[in-house]
Amino acid sequence: MDSGWYTTMKPSFRDEWMALPHKEVQQIHEKIKLLEQDPTPDAKVKKQLKHLHPRLHRIRSGHYRIFYTFEKPHVSLLALRRRDDDTYDEEIDAEFLGGLVPELRLAQPGIPGWEAPYTNEPTAKRLPQPITEELLTRLQIPGEYFPRLVHLQTEDDLLDCPDVPSAVLDKLLEYMFPRPLQQVMQQPDLHVQHLDDLLRFKEGELISFLLKLSPEQEKYVNWGMKASGPTLLKGLPGTGKSTIALYRVRSIIAELRKQGRDDIRILFTTYTNALINSSLQLLEQLLGTDIRFVDVQTADRVAIKLLSHAGRTPHIMNDSEMNTLLQHAIQKTRFDGSEQQKQSQKQTIEQMSLDYLLQEINQVIVARQLHTLKDYLTAARPGRKLPLRGIQRRAVWSIFETLQQSLAQQGKITWRQARAMAEAYVAQGAYTQFYDAVIIDEAQDLDPSSLRLLVHLCKQSNRIFVTADANQSIYGSGFNWSDVHQDLKFQGRTAILHANYRSTREIGEAAQNYLAEGALDTDTEERLYVNNGPQPIMRRIQDQRQQLQLLVSFFRQARSAYRMSSGACAVLCPTIKSGRAIAEDFTRQGLDATFMTGQELDLKRSCIKVITLRSAKGLEFPIVALAGFLESTWHTTMPHTPSDEEREEYLSLERRTMFVGMTRAMRALLVVTPEDSTSPLMQGFDRQYWNVGEQS
Ligand SMILES: Nc1ncnc2c1ncn2[C@@H]1O[C@H](COP(=O)(O)OP(=O)(O)OP(=O)(O)O)[C@@H](O)[C@H]1O
């Protein structure tokens, strides 16, 4: 009989259920069924534990107690804990629940020594019981890890255990040290569609449960599917844009199946390789074998495939080759006009940095497919702060023409040219293998030509779904909503998400405050958060030794406070060089850390991941440090000596890059800056939002 109640559970409950001895399963399953019939207290087995938290309830089952909350129509299972003696409920105390702080809103999950990250290492906590093969089997941990795990004796051993995947270590940590209920309450809810799924999960027949979306998010999974054009979903970091994009894929497959289709083709695309890797992993989990219907690729990979279909194998010029070629083009170019005009054009180019000139050519001329000087003279240059008058644009155009000739002579093209060529090829109608649906995640970093290309590839415009956040545009300064609107004509099918599910309020607000003048989208939308925690930390350091000491101490303490293994930690660095140096420093200290490029990124690895700020886009980690600014010249020197406008544009792009890095953090964030830095990027840490402690 349908009681009108639906069960959800927290990941902690799921893991505790997994660890439950088989002989207890049936009885506890019966109790969960009882809750789904009616969770309200009955003064016998079901009881409200008001003295601990106004919403907390428990149901008894032998030596076990299931802790839960409910709010029509959902019953949320929080924890499954064993108490050996037959204790009365009044004796259930915060300690038994792992340290529940009664009033959730006031709760500040403390990190020991949080205020003094230089304090001595905490002493290693012994595991409350030995790790046995029987336990590992019950937790469904693959046998290959047994030899490594059965020798571990302390919490630290578990927190830092190389070569064992984080998911395995986290399962053991969860079992050994019950998570404080206050942390459990902040975890996402997972749908338990049928209560028998719990049994199937225990038997290994079911591998995962779906996230319970908010009603607002749920709406956007199917929103506008029958409309006449594409849909755009905007929102601040962590509001669930990518999650909805993934669920939308699932929903489209279900819809097409209903129509009797079994030859479905969906394209899921985004900008970076790292995000493609993680989206693929999530889609595999979400879709199971239906993943065969989905191509998960970067927009650039799509462009290259199309060009190869057109019989071209483009040789793409890399950044450093491009810089050299541009320098040659500047030397070679002869400007037109009177002597005075020639002089003025020469000066224009000399006053512009190489980077800025290249961006102008790439983002304005090539990406917008401007074919004539006339077009360029009247073109909009969104996001470009340095104004260029007619004569100045003539100068840029001449350099562009010389550059084109040099590229042609070498038989190479740029990425931007490749994208534009692919778009032109599809627009001509030569390609006919269209997709049933195209999902574009993180569109703010795509060139207009990439966007248009993806639009052309979709059979029906109402099956195009785009997510974007202008303030996370970090691969160019030219993002502009009007470009997107002009090409995609969303007309009313634009929605905005407001609730951040990733970061704590403290991290989210501190990052927003830091972003300030780097913002491209300054709409003051209401910002909501579902999690809270301690303020993020900013510390200034003098040298590499101090940086390392601080990072090691921060990760140790945060990992222990949040009971997470090294796999939950990431260091985000400005450059590949600084990232490699930090990973080497960690390794010398005996910590398992690896520098990974976007292509190499393996989120399942148990080590501390060291990656660049740019490839962290779209990803997330519970514990994050931004570091490596000492080793890098990135923050102190500007290319060339640019104008104020150019400098302003460059700094706002880099500020957004830092912002993207900060907003990857879910629970704990540390930013390490050089003490003597005069860079504006290392400023802007308002004490109202940041824990700016003094160095000891
Ligand atoms: N309804 C929800 N309940 C709990 N967690 C959620 C919910 N929606 C999203 N999340 C979680 O919040 C995190 C952020 O979601 P997601 O990556 O989709 O956000 P985003 O808007 O794409 O972020 P960004 O723009 O910063 O990349 C993910 O861990 C996701 O699982």
From TrEMBL:
Q: Which InterPro entries match?
A: DNA_helicase_UvrD-like_C, DNA_helicase_UvrD/REP, P-loop_NTPase, RelE/ParE_toxin_dom_sf, UvrD-like_ATP-bd
Q: What class of enzyme is it?
A: isomerase
Alphabetical list of Pfam families matching this protein? UvrD-helicase, UvrD_C
Q: Does the keyword Cell membrane apply?
A: no
Q: Which Gene3D superfamilies match?
A: P-loop containing nucleotide triphosphate hydrolases (3.40.50.300), RelE-like (3.30.2310.20)
**Can the keyword DNA damage be found in this entry's annotation?**
no
Residues where ATP binds: 235-242
Domain UvrD-like helicase ATP-binding: from-to ranges: 214-504
Query: Could you tell me the keywords of this UniProt record?
Result: ATP-binding, Helicase, Hydrolase, Isomerase, Nucleotide-binding
Q: Which reaction does it catalyse?
A: ATP + H2O = ADP + phosphate + H(+); Couples ATP hydrolysis with the unwinding of duplex DNA by translocating in the 3'-5' direction
State the EC number(s).
Answer: 5.6.2.4
One GO MF term:
helicase activity
Protein name per Swiss-Prot or TrEMBL = DNA 3'-5' helicase
The beginning of the lineage is: Bacteria, Bacillati, Chloroflexota, Ktedonobacteria, Ktedonobacterales
